[in-house]
Fold this sequence. Notes:
Transferase(Phosphotransferase), domain 1, 5-stranded antiparallel β-sheet, 21 helices
Amino acid sequence: MVATSQKGETLAQSLKQLDERLEKEIVGFCKHIAGSSQIIAACMSDGCAANPANTKAVAEVLLVIRLFPPRLMNYVKVSEDRNIVVLAVDQWIFERDVDRGFLGEALAGRMIFPYVALISSDYLHSHEITLKKRLILEMLENLILDFPELSNQFLMKPAYFMYEAMLSRIRLFPPMVYNLHTYGESETQVDMSRVLHGYLEALKGLEKEKLIVLSKGYVQISRDFTDKARGQTTRFMNLLKSGQRTMFTSLLSLFPKTMDLLSQDRAFSLKSPVVFERDSRDALRVEDPQKYLYLPTASGLVPLSSRIDIETYARKALGADERTKVEIHQIGGILNDVFLVRVLDKEKLERKIVAKRFRDWSSFKWFPLTLWSVGTRSFAVRGRPRLEKEIAINQFLYSKGFGVPRILHASPNDRLVFMEFVEGRNMSEIVKKTSEVKSPREMKKDLTLIGRVGRTFAKVHALGVALGDTKPENVMIGKNSEIIIMDFEQASKGGDKVWDVAEFLYYAGHDLPPLVEAGKVELIAKAFVGGYLKGGGDVKTVQRAGNPKYTKVFSIFTLPHVMLAISNVCRKADKLEA
């Protein structure tokens, strides 16, 4: 027992020394970068600081410098303890990003997540409060615009603002989830109490300004603020900020997060694509903000995350009585909430369905896609029209013999659709596997499946239907090897068929590992294009998918050499046809 205690003390002392050595090295590197200029402040992500023993994690540092000539610059240092990435920024730019989102909080957003102050903690704390006050007001404005009649009745816990701010950014740039975890033999979530404390201070300041009311631990929007926030100007400004936030956050965060990916061990690297494929809060380990947003009722406070309606419809759709246990688990969704509903009957037979609730895009979480696709593609944004598209196109394709998840029940008033659960393999997984296998026989088998997907798309297009959202994850290979298409909320008759081809191919490129060979990318693209043409698809449709009009939309998250290989295959589709 004594020996174990001594080992523990020795380990703790070693970690402390490592922590001090790392901090000293980072501060020294920051001074080297600043040169003769004055350092105003420096901080690092708490995900790294909370686990100094993991030398594979990248130390991501924000450095604020007075009168910094380059204005904004990334610096990298490879040391014995770990890789260090420093984002150095001029004080003027940083403070404008805090005050008004000058760069979409790509810099100030570091203080939304847990961080450790290395230099000038008072300066950082002051600006953290300023930032959080502004973000809280924006979130309240969005609530007012989303719920004009109910917003004044909402009661919110302060944690709502903390998780909403984090989750909105993780949705826009999923690798930011690293800021919430430490990495070692197991992943652990960092302490959120310091982050929440900043929101508590910000809320007290807003109460003094009579913009909110604080009572018994809850936040309520004042009537004056509600009246002021209603209007098209507020909606447009918040929409614009969301676009800026995504663009700058993606650009300024991509390099350090890529370094982090390459630095982690292989076990985590293999897991990470699963984490980022879907916005599952369980996978990301970020709490649902709506758990802290309540509506007063006669029976008490009901959180907006309540799933009672889903269970009611699930019992109806599955024919389950009150004694039958119904299990509901969230399985994904960015624009929509998607749930897996399970029932175990008396014979111990499990029945599963999927419930999908259609939300409006009025909170603009996916506005960046619309921004990037201006001139290329328009999107249905309201919940009701998207639900109607889902039902109408699904049933139309089913009537024509296509494999789709059958709709079991629908409630347009509640924006709910229940459909059968599809067993099988996801095409996104198959695309990844195709790039990794070495056996020609195994690769041929996977390429054949990809070709069959191309033929299926061509047959759908022959009916005058454009699917609208053709990411590989929306195509399944069923238990009997049948092609099953899902997600029709952006589908339409007479829509853009070129978009369907482009989205499948370039998203497939996004699913491929960073160091994939161009030859394998071409094989995958040729398999899909070949199948599409054999299925009767128009060669001009494929060729247009290689044009800049479409490649510009996907180049933000698909690597350049992958984009080039795919677009070349599309432009030369007439040779494949021959």
